[in-house]
Amino acid sequence: MTVRVGVIGAGMIGQDHIRRLTEVVAGAAVTAVTDIDGPRAAEAASRVGAAVLPSGRDLIGSPEVDAVLVASWGPSHAEHVLNAIAAGKPVFCEKPLATTAADCLRIVDAERAHGRRLVQVGFMRRFDAGYRRMKDVLASGALGAPLMVHCAHRNATVPESYTSVMAAQDTAVHEIDVLRWLLDDEIVSAQVITPRRTSRRFEHLRDPQIMLFETANGVRVDLEIFVNCQYGYDIQCEVVGEAGLVRLPDPAAAGVRTAGRHGTAVPQDWKERFGDAFDAEFRAWTASVASGAEPCGPSAWDGYAAAVITDAAVRSLESGGEVVAVGLKPRPACYGGAAA
Amino acid sequence: MTVRVGVIGAGMIGQDHIRRLTEVVAGAAVTAVTDIDGPRAAEAASRVGAAVLPSGRDLIGSPEVDAVLVASWGPSHAEHVLNAIAAGKPVFCEKPLATTAADCLRIVDAERAHGRRLVQVGFMRRFDAGYRRMKDVLASGALGAPLMVHCAHRNATVPESYTSVMAAQDTAVHEIDVLRWLLDDEIVSAQVITPRRTSRRFEHLRDPQIMLFETANGVRVDLEIFVNCQYGYDIQCEVVGEAGLVRLPDPAAAGVRTAGRHGTAVPQDWKERFGDAFDAEFRAWTASVASGAEPCGPSAWDGYAAAVITDAAVRSLESGGEVVAVGLKPRPACYGGAAA
Amino acid sequence: MTVRVGVIGAGMIGQDHIRRLTEVVAGAAVTAVTDIDGPRAAEAASRVGAAVLPSGRDLIGSPEVDAVLVASWGPSHAEHVLNAIAAGKPVFCEKPLATTAADCLRIVDAERAHGRRLVQVGFMRRFDAGYRRMKDVLASGALGAPLMVHCAHRNATVPESYTSVMAAQDTAVHEIDVLRWLLDDEIVSAQVITPRRTSRRFEHLRDPQIMLFETANGVRVDLEIFVNCQYGYDIQCEVVGEAGLVRLPDPAAAGVRTAGRHGTAVPQDWKERFGDAFDAEFRAWTASVASGAEPCGPSAWDGYAAAVITDAAVRSLESGGEVVAVGLKPRPACYGGAAA
Amino acid sequence: MTVRVGVIGAGMIGQDHIRRLTEVVAGAAVTAVTDIDGPRAAEAASRVGAAVLPSGRDLIGSPEVDAVLVASWGPSHAEHVLNAIAAGKPVFCEKPLATTAADCLRIVDAERAHGRRLVQVGFMRRFDAGYRRMKDVLASGALGAPLMVHCAHRNATVPESYTSVMAAQDTAVHEIDVLRWLLDDEIVSAQVITPRRTSRRFEHLRDPQIMLFETANGVRVDLEIFVNCQYGYDIQCEVVGEAGLVRLPDPAAAGVRTAGRHGTAVPQDWKERFGDAFDAEFRAWTASVASGAEPCGPSAWDGYAAAVITDAAVRSLESGGEVVAVGLKPRPACYGGAAA
Ligand SMILES: [Mg+2]
Ligand SMILES: [Mg+2]
Ligand SMILES: [Mg+2]
Ligand SMILES: [Mg+2]
């Protein structure tokens, strides 16, 4: 039984996910595509023999579509996700779930009203083998309670269009999600401090930034965001517990000794680094849709929490480094919380 | 267009490949299963909605089968592969291609007569990301010509049924194949020397063994085979060239510091270690079948060469450590050789 | 020409330094020892054939003493160092230089009045091969300007007498000194934030702590202090520059694979971790005394700066985490500064 | 009590040892120097205030010399060592102990006749912290009985005067000694096989070579000797036992990430790699002389065994790769053996 996926948005990410669902993930097929750029939709659809539909609404309503993938422009996410919920269809939404916390909350409310989870948000790190192994180690109890997390998120470079607030919104948001999951804990405050600025990139950009988070359990997180580090795409994460620590592995890389150096290649981008995680993410999503189960990946609530926490980080940056409290609503029971 | 695979042999490996083709590899489906143990075939088939057929011959002839996977008992491989060639159907044969070099050669001859490659042999290491990265480094020329290779192949334990000659036939055969490919060179002699025997396992078994190979280009290979090393499944490979070396990476593993140690887990078996390589192997095979291209993986010739080289290693072991020349036929042009 | 050293303080550290000067460092001999505990002084002296003198003042004045090593109780340091300066004798003072910034400043002023440097303070990390290699890499310019430093200082355990302010005064003080030297920069503010407390140790102790420093050049430092981390003595330091990063190496340790794990031992205490640095520190000091040169190690000014910065960290801790400015006097010219 | 050392031979190695004994090793002083090149002796002596003596015989007989260090031309070693034994003075002899096994045996016999050990041979690796840690691990029993050893000894380059037999005599001899000690076992056969020759160096030289040794306990050793590996000085050693393995650590080196690579520097020569081992070697020797104890380092017997084993390797190389038995005399009781 093949899951028939309709894809909204045929840009770079959308095309990559179409390829993945078609060529990599067993049991999934892309049957419909839509995009505000009609020819782009047509081209992407023709490569996989999918129908081109005029709008997200049409695609969501199509009887040839079992489940929806939203990979369009961020500001359009909320509407498509709400439509999918209204249609009762499973929907995978690339991050962000919505561009405002208020819109995220509308989705949460709609999903609650629907009565069961339909939404998975595209935070792929939860599916990375390294993070999963870290979670296993933490769950084993061998390290005792977690106390601190040290992280770094480095990109070789970003384009000129990248702005200082995107450090939180586009970059740190991955750590925000994966740490909430890894620690099974909630972030309660955020602070952003700004080191000396790199001279190797744009005047307008505060880069690097250091973000500090505190969780409900008192865990302290420091996260370096450095999006023009020049040397590669480098993701570091170390959780320190009462009796030891666990560290995210670097990707396996062939060691080379030549010309006085022993070395390994550093990945150059997130596609290389997290390609397997993307595959696993869609495999898991496809399996949940096929079985009729709720999705096991990040929920609408996780998308909402990420929005509120990144908002706090942005406010801290704009305030010159104040500690900003994270004001999350009570977590509803259907998302594992205590609220009704 | 889904590739419809018929599977001959529903034992442990066959079942694993059925799962892989069904759940992991996009574009493939298992449509028929046969096994000398009828109920076992029925059970495996029912899990994936495949037909149960009475014999390999029936399965190969079925119009519902586009391509054949042979995962049955080794001695039956040659017959099934020859039947598939006779039927003009692509066939993936788990190693060994055949249990004698003579039978391998019959397959090679049949395939040549057919006029194009239909056979892929199940040496999965060529699809492992680490070996592929090594090959890239060698191909870059940064290391100059390869001169030596140091390898180890260690299993935690083997069952009592494992015999001393299996060190070459079942274990070293993986290095024999992957090194021929990695070096793009041919093995011309083999020698087996026997260290002190481990006391942790069976009296009847010569374990460990050290195998020495020489290639046509004069590269010297030493390969430790130690199938009861106790601590895990550990594959090491280092190629030393004129200007440097490259080393197979250990799998990425979370670093843990606790109780006075910094450490990482060692994989416990080959399924864990080479799971991704098996997936990539079948993805590539499926893609070649779907596109109508010749398979890109190990050929019948590679299966034949592996048989002759393992025979030489076995003879060396049985002779008490003589250097045994590898007597390969000239390589036919259709396998990249100079012979007609 | 042997440097004759008089040692003030024959406790654990003093005895270790006596051993080092006698057995390890060429060109040095301990000729006199004093301690408030007379029998302890006598025992330490007798082991190396040194004289026992009744007081620090007598020892400093002895014609058998070329240079003085102060390893007594912290509150007595200032007096001994000032006496040595008054006598015009080189003096090595274990950290702290003095227990108050005011006393440190009195030493700085006395040394300036004397006209040349006589004092070296016992911050041994500047002599550690790993930190020195980091400094070489930074000096090469390959990384561009430093922007951030991530550090951790972990002890397996501390005794019950250890108090929360000692995290700054006794522990972080080593990073404070070595980072000022590594970056060739000055720390201008300090902040201490407190993660969830470990349950594995004392109720009275804030452990771990995270210290944040900013330098004059805008470099941001985060430093984890965790003195009951259980697993070992672990020192981490990573400097991130505009074009790359450099990381302090872990000590070389034999890799062991056994029982499913690949691992290395973590040092258990600072004597094991920094033994070679202590040797190098005293070798350099002895050489400078023998040659009549000013000492190349940490100066009285460095001792003063460390005192002011640790005071700021203590105030931040006690304030609940305020950012506290570091109020250093202008640096005198004789310490490489611009002040008269 | 300072040990007064007389140094025979003031070439490069001799000068380095004079520096070491003077500046690094506590409790030692060089009081006399001789060299066949008089001005060279005078210059070396003058730097440390030592006397220049006309001959080794004069130096050994001098009342100002407590112990002798032989660092002259290899063919002169035996005579000086025999003279020192005749004089009853401790003597440290750089490798080789003598240039023929017969001369080594004369030294062994003379020392036996003297009644106690006076000779230490300059195999410094036994004092390397990494090898010592390996020995500790083996001694702990955690790995069970050793079964195999995999080694590599690589130099960046050698000068044109280096000949093929020096691979055994000058290079492999270090592994031969350290493995005998590490395993507490005796080498009983040697074999040399020759891979494809590197094109990056001299026509006359067989480089690399692979040496295979077998021990009395059946341990099998493979040792890559590659003295023009181009990239650096690289020493690898891995002992595989019944229950696990232990690996010689690479030297601690700062990790650098820049320009797409994570890397560490590889040492460029043996002085850099084993500097600490040389220091420890002379510290131990000086301490043994000072205390009147027999030396703890490699004995005359070890020097003799190394000579016989390297002879066997040379014969194997010259025979085209035959297995050559090592014909050691029975080990005398005073060297831990069973012979009278
Ligand atoms: Mg994503
Ligand atoms: Mg296979
Ligand atoms: Mg100190
Ligand atoms: Mg030596």
Radius of gyration of chain A: 20 Å
Distance between the termini of chain A: 36 Å
Name the CATH homologous superfamily of the largest domain in chain A: Dihydrodipicolinate Reductase, domain 2
Named CATH architecture of the largest domain in chain A: 2-Layer Sandwich
The level of helicity of chain A is 25-40%
Task: Indicate the CATH class of the largest domain in chain A.
Answer: Alpha Beta
How much is the average pLDDT of chain A?
Answer: 97
Q: Tell me the greatest interface.
A: A-B, 34 and 34 residues
Identify every distinct bound molecule in the structure, by name, code or SMILES. magnesium ion
| Quaternary structure annotation | homotetramer
Shape of chain A: globular
Q: Number of DSSP helices of chain A?
A: 9
Explained architecture:
4 copies of one chain form a homotetramer. Chain A has about 350 residues and is of the alpha/beta class. Chain A contains 9 helices and 15 strands. Chain A has a 7-stranded mixed β-sheet, with helices on one face. Chain A starts with a strand and ends in a 15-residue tail after the last strand. The interface between A and B is medium-sized, with 34 and 34 residues. Strand 13 of chain A pairs antiparallel with strand 12 (about 245) of chain B, so a sheet runs across the interface. One magnesium ion binds near residues 94, 95, 122, 123 and 124 of chain C. Chains A, B, C, D: Keywords: NAD, Oxidoreductase. Chains A, B, C, D: This is Inositol 2-dehydrogenase.
What would the keywords be for this entry?
globular, 37% helix, Dihydrodipicolinate Reductase, domain 2, alpha/beta, 2 domains, binds magnesium ion, 340 residues, 6-stranded parallel beta sheet
